[in-house]
Each structure stands twice: as C-alpha cells, then as structure tokens.
Amino acid sequence: xxxxxxxxxxxxxxxxxxxxxxxxxxxxxxxxxxxxxxxxxxxxxxxxxxxxxxxxxxxxxxxxxxxxxxxxxxxxxxxxxxxxxxxxxxxxxxxxxxxxxxx
Length: 103
Prior knowledge:
The protein is mostly helical. 79% of the residues lie in helices and 0% in strands.
C-alpha cells in the first residue's frame, strides 16, 4: 500500500481530525487537559498509547451518535472507513509534545 502523507501528517484523515480538534476551542482545551493529566500519571509511550486509545474511542462514539440518526448508506460506510485511517498515535504524540514544550 502506498503511503499518502498530507500536510506533514500521516494522511488526510489524521490531519483533518487534528485540524478540527485545534479549531474547536472546547475540544482543544479538553484534550490539552487530558494530555496534561496523562503526562503526570504516565511516562513516555504509555501516555501516548492511553491517549491514542481515548481519542479513538471518543471520536468513534461521536461518529456513532451521528450514524444513529442516519440510515446505512455509502456515506456512513465512508465515515467509518475514514476513521479507521486516522493515526490516533500520531495525534496523541503531538498533543503530548505540546505539553512538554510548554513546561
């Protein structure tokens, strides 16, 4: 499979999720706070993996709420396929790096 980087990120899907996270103040603050908590509770790779799992779970639930009101169709399949392409670890790494830069 060919690697398709987008604007410095693994792919478009990853870039797009992080873009929306950064552009929505409530999401930005919530994930910044969660990353800060994880930095104090865990070291290195453990914090990345926990945060990545929490991001994936959160956005999966958000998509699920949207999909509950929509009938199964091509677009619901595309949404789910896109979410599977997101590199949650990469987003988590960037969030945690931002915490270390601030310190």
